Amino acid sequence: MVSVTGASTGAGLVVAAAAATCYESGYAFQALEARGVGARYALRASLLGQLVRNRRWLAATALSLLGWPLQVLALSLAPLALVQPTLALGLVLLLVLGARVLGERVGRREVTAVALVIAGIAGLAVAAPQRGSAVGGTGLVLAIVALAVLAVAPYAIRRRRVGLLAVLSAGAADSVAALAAKVMAGELADERWVAAVAVAALAATAGALATVSEMSALQRLPATRVAPMVLAFQIAVPVVVVAALGGEDWGATMLGGAVAGAGLLAVVTGTVLLASSRAVSGLIAPPSPGSPPRR
After folding, report:
1. In which domain, by residue range, is 32 found?
2. What is the pTM of this model?
């Protein structure tokens, strides 16, 4: 007989996979449309002003936005240590699309990457901590403030060569949104509606900042560098923060914690390999200088 906890975790895994599909599909189409915007708009709020006039970019954004309530629902059913890494499954969909649309060959590297992601998620499903108590307090505030400082850093520096910093900004802002989703799941469960709305506003702000930073980074750096770093950051950092704050117990035994840690490492490694694959990066890579935007 399947336990209630096991059934809840399984349902959370399924919902997280659906969120991953929305996130990565929307991301690919967002990036394709961002290629048509002039580089002079990078790291400026006016970049969003240009993009919101594009109906296809808006449709892709709507698809990405659908992923967030699904992520919150998944976090109400399963631990963040499982939900956040499961978002990497969206890259498998991009790999299939890249192979079919761009005709890129799926080789040993891609097969190994997919195997690592799936094996890592399976390990986390077995050994990851229970959903645990809500995360909050001074520790969480300090973590979010530190990530927020990194997220706004390129806008404060205002230098031309801030491509790498824009990548880190996107990862940090996405991490804030993920932590906010974890907190919001707890607030909704406790029926604290005002707090839930406030956290949702924080997540929306972080998400918008992450979008501007990532679209700007894609205008300046190859997608093979942008996507792996952003995804690895937003998968690993929230999991580590929540574990460090005691919001999720990483196993009653040393073996359980080791398996969960190995699973997270496998997912992050597979994510980096997949995101840097030509079959995946070709969907989101910006055009070479002087070339017209592809549609």
Report:
1. 4-284
2. 0.78
pLDDT tens-digit readout, 18-37: 998 888 788 777 766 666 65
Residue 291 covered by a domain: no
**d(C-alpha 243, C-alpha 239), whole Å:** 6
Angle between helices 4-34 and 90-101 (to 10 degrees): 40
Q: Is 1 helix (H, G, I), strand (E, B) or coil?
A: coil
254-275 and 90-101 are packed helices; what angle lies between their axes, rounded to 10 degrees? 20
Quick: pLDDT tens for 185-229. Answer: 888 888 888 888 998 999 989 988 987 888 778 777 776 778 788
| Residue 10 resides in a domain | yes
Assigned domain for 292 exists:
no
Q: How far is CA 272 from CA 91, 92, 109, 232, 289, in A?
A: 10, 12, 11, 7, 25
How many domains would you assign to the chain?
Answer: 1
Specify if 182 maps to a domain.
yes
